[in-house]
Amino acid sequence: MKLNIIHTNDLHGHLENWPIIKQYLNLQKQFFIEKRAPFLLVDIGDALDTVHPMVEATEGMIMVDLFNEVGYDVVTIGNNEGLNFTNNQLSYLYSQSRYEVALANLLDSRTYNYPKWASSIVYRDFEDLRIALIGLTAPYATYTLNQYELIDPYDALEQQLRSIQNSSRNVDVVIVLSHLGLKDDRLIAAKYPQIDLIIGGHTHHVLQDGEVVKQATIAAAGRYGEYVGLIELEIPDKQIGKLWRKTKRRIDINCHLATIEQLRDLTEIPISDSYELRGRQMLKSQKLAELPHLYTANRSEGENSFIQLALDAICDKTSTTLGVLSTGLFLSDLPKGIVTQNDLHEALPHSMHLIVMTFRGEHLIEMVEEMKSQEEDLRHRLINGMGFRGKIFGEIIFRGIEFNSKTQEWYAEGKAIVADRTYRVAAVDHYWFVPFFSTIATYGSPELLFPDFLRHIVSNYIQNKYPITTVGKD
């Protein structure tokens, strides 16, 4: 028997490619239906990303609707779903889905059971053929802030493999939907001979023809819908229905990737910004505040400085007087007059939460000097990932921290920093995750604030400080 699997991963809300992908998926499914060939459509996570205005405006529902429309069968989640949407938001989204969610290494911390919207293993039957799909997501410690309890993915996988082995029903094929990254996928393939296929994501790797590690095949389709994958599994009929734990299996697996350019030529559908335009219109309808003047992204000082406004906002939110942000976060200005959610989303599209760091004075000085020592290198350094959706890191701007050239000392709150005094500093979690500032993890005891992103913090701040008073609020 031949089983066909179409797979996507790490779409990150890149809906400009979706009309092409949708048409291709429909064509493939229709072909398999006409041939009476069994097939599955799966996604490996990070489909929902609020960097896209339509995802932001609909709180993720647009992706669920699109996946329902084309008929996905099984998905797992990535860190963008698990950490950028609250537990309740994700629960509602998947209550509206017509596909199953496989997720073996995340529990609801309120019940210590799997979330109601997920199954540790999803089984699918095709006549006498039975397959098991196990979902694993990247184990970020910050999941605990979203009312989840993490299970080590290897422990979770071993538990599910034992469950399959002890089951009274035979399983012919074991597939892992892995949002762990290529390094872990290779380790899993080498360690667990029970696994036939790993379909991966998270690290945005492209495996054009798949990769074989021992008995397992690893597949992946890059990022952003730039590729769509097709996997063909050929299982000998005489092998189907035999006890999986006792049979020496032979499964032929072939992997193929189609580029979005190839799919565009095939479907004759252009790349489209229609979803972005609709999302922008929805966000523009959400009026927030009425600013007395322009706040400029490229000014680091003065009353017209956007970064200074943001420092006001994060210090107000965290009840601190000290803060740090970088100019590369600010992608556009905030206009004078009525400001909308769209203005904030365009300017601060990043998936970044706030952190509050607590330092002894001597360690605060060490952190500041660590940042200043890299200032010139980081000013124009291209940055990608870790929640960042801009281009360059930019200039580091401190609030309440400065160097006194006369005394040759670092000052905080207008006074020389005292070595054994405690100081609290507000920032974004991005600085904790990037590999530049080791003092944050070593000495800062960072506390992450969930669930609001930086743009939501700024939005709430300007709504309170500059409420709409003109007819523009209608």
Automatic annotation (TrEMBL):
Calcineurin-like phosphoesterase domain residues: 4-205
Domain (5'-Nucleotidase C-terminal) ranges: 296-430
A GO CC annotation given for this chain: outer membrane-bounded periplasmic space
PROSITE patterns: 5_NUCLEOTIDASE_1
One Pfam entry name: 5_nucleotid_C
GO biological process: nucleotide catabolic process
Keywords noted in UniProt: Hydrolase, Nucleotide-binding, Signal
Stored Gene3D superfamilies: 3.60.21.10, 5'-Nucleotidase, C-terminal domain
Protein name listed in UniProt: Bifunctional metallophosphatase/5'-nucleotidase
Organism: Fundicoccus ignavus
